[in-house]
Every structure is written in structure tokens, then in C-alpha cells.
Amino acid sequence: NAGVTQTPKFQVLKTGQSMTLQCAQDMNHNSMYWYRQDPGMGLRLIYYSASEGTTDKGEVPNGYNVSRLNKREFSLRLELAAPSQTSVYFCASSGLEGGPNGYTFGSGTRLTVV
Amino acid sequence: AQKITQTQPGMFVQEKEAVTLDCTYDTSDPSYGLFWYKQPSSGEMIFLIYQGSYDQQNATEGRYSLNFQKARKSANLVISASQLGDSAMYFCAMRRSGGSNYKLTFGKGTLLTVNP
Fold first, then answer.
1. pLDDT digits (tens, 9 = 90+) for B26-39
2. Dihedral, CA of residue B77, residue B83, residue B87 and residue B91, to nearest 10
């Protein structure tokens, strides 16, 4: 089925370890996003890519890096994981117009940093 | 900058009754879109309803309607005839229109519990 695929679904890291969250979409969308969700905080934007070849910081970019590998793939990297990065991470994509039905979310990655 | 405020951390409603979830927003953009998403305990984000800032009529989608009051900058979600399956977290979100940046800004959410 068409949509946004995130891997892995669950991950436990030790403080200081690094990892990359993968995201791929087959919607032919131009824009892709990484959000984190914490209890009582809603979804906060970490980084986004308005189009292939561009990336920009969102609201909470510290401690993260991203790569827009191609139009389909947008990865999120934690270089030195910290307990404060324990969260649920969502990848999303949207079409050029970003219209009412234009956003598709992945199923999320639950990350725990111990 | 855009900001979404949801002042109700939790709401309770009896099955078959209607419930209103509040959302106010702040933006300097003349054109924008407002969204409501549902997140059940399984975690996926489900799109419910959309309202464009220039839409003349309030949006409706089945049992969901959006009470859009532009002058008051509010976009409340009304769920009619609540069902047990409506128990979930609900997020209000907005985006600017135009340009190439369509990022969504979310509120903190309201946890709705439907009682039998």
C-alpha cells in the first residue's frame, strides 16, 4: 500500500550511541518532515525538507541531523543519543500544495535512550 | 510564527452525546489551513477534517464538523453522537498557504474519553 514507511518501529539505545531513523514515501510527495511526540507536548517539528536537495531546521533541531537522500527518502540521525531524546518519532510527507488530504504520516518509531 | 493552543488536556463525554474540542490559533499569515487529527492508542495519525482560511462555510465530514470563527481565531472540533471508538487523542494543527513550506504546527492535544 502507498504511504510512508518508517524503520525501525522500536529501538533502545544507550546514552552516547548513535543511530539513524529511516523514512521512505511512495506518494511522490515533494516535502518530508520529522516530528517528535512527547507526552503533553503534541508533535514538534525537528527538521523538514521542502523539496529534494533542501533541508531546514524546525522547532527542536538540536541533537539531530537529517539527510534527504532522494525524493523518496528522508533520514534522521542521532549522533550522541541522550535520555532527553526518548520519544516517539514520526515521519510525514506532503504534496506540492500541502492540501487538506495531502499529509501522510508514518506509523512512528518509539525510541528509548537509557 | 504560528501557534496552536488547545486548552483542554482531557475531556469526558457520554456515548451518543456531542462534544466540542477547543482550538485557538495565532498567525500573521493571511492565508492558512487548519486541520484536526485523531490519534488512537495504537499511535497512528488519522486525518479528520480541514478548513481553509478563506472557506466561506464550516467544514463537515460525517460526524465531525469544524466550528471556524476567523475573527476569534478559533477552530473548534465538534463530534456529534460520540462513539466508544472516538476515545483518542485529538490534535489541532495549522499550516500557512502559499510558497513551498507546508509544515504543520500542532497543538498539545486533547485526550477524549467516551464513557458508555
1. 998 888 999 999 99
2. -20
